[in-house]
Amino acid sequence: MKFNLVLIRGSFGLAFFGTPHDGGNDALVKMGKISMAIVRGIFRDPPNDLMQALSHGSLFADVLKANWRHQLNLYKIVSFYEKMSIMYVITRYPKPYRADKLKVRIVPRASAVIDLPGDMENQVGIDASHSDICRFDPSILKDMDNYEKVQGNFRELYEGALEKLGEILPTVPEGELRARLATLGREQTHRV
């Protein structure tokens, strides 16, 4: 428990990329549950809670939210949500066979954002599908625009963290603190 308090007090911001806080797309979750049941049946794997957590309004998802909500005011949050849909073709059985096209967002905006006031949460639309929300190809202009959105929000989190650190450690002059952190950042980059 002591480690958790240190971690909580030492954290400033959180970034979520298409995270289904309130469950994923209902049709895709249903397909996922069927697929997982087949795989579990074949391999005799025990059930897990992943698909339950992705189900909108499930008890498991509600418990996760209830346990988390009392901490929300401790952090500056950035929620990135997908703005592009993905096309799925679903074949329906039995006869007559029919293929339906389903254009969906894997995690709808309403689930990807926590819906806090603007001073606590930035909600940022990324012009990408769920699969590409964290991918940035420098040769694609749209990806670079998305990257700049992410980088700008991360910079705000970084600046806020420096400010919080300055409040915790007021004896270190701000310029010196920035220099130390910049040096640390360069050292970490070279180690990778």
| Shape verdict | elongated
The total number of structural domains is: 1
Class per helix and strand makeup: alpha/beta
Radius of gyration: 21 Å
In the sheet with the most strands, the strands line up as 1-2-5
Determine the mean pLDDT.
76
Largest sheet: 3 strands, parallel
SSE order, one letter for each helix or strand: HEHHHEEEHEHH
As residue ranges, the low-confidence spans are: none
Strand segment count: 5
- Tally of helical segments: 7
Residues in helices, as a percent range: 40-55%
C-alpha end-to-end distance: 31 Å
What percent strand?
15-25%
What features would you describe in this structure?
By secondary structure, the protein is α/β, with parallel strands linked by helices. The protein has one domain. Helix content is 47%, strand content 17%. The chain has helices spanning 2-9, 26-43, 50-54, 59-68, 109-112, 141-168, 174-191, and strands at residues 13-17, 76-82, 86-92, 98-104, 121-126. A 3-stranded parallel β-sheet has the order 1-2-5, with helices on one face. Strand 3 and strand 4 (98-104) form a beta hairpin. The model has no long low-confidence stretch (mean pLDDT 76).
Summarize the model shown.
With 192 residues, the protein is α/β, with parallel strands linked by helices. The chain has helices spanning 2-9, 26-43, 50-54, 59-68, 109-112, 141-168, 174-191, and strands at residues 13-17, 76-82, 86-92, 98-104, 121-126.
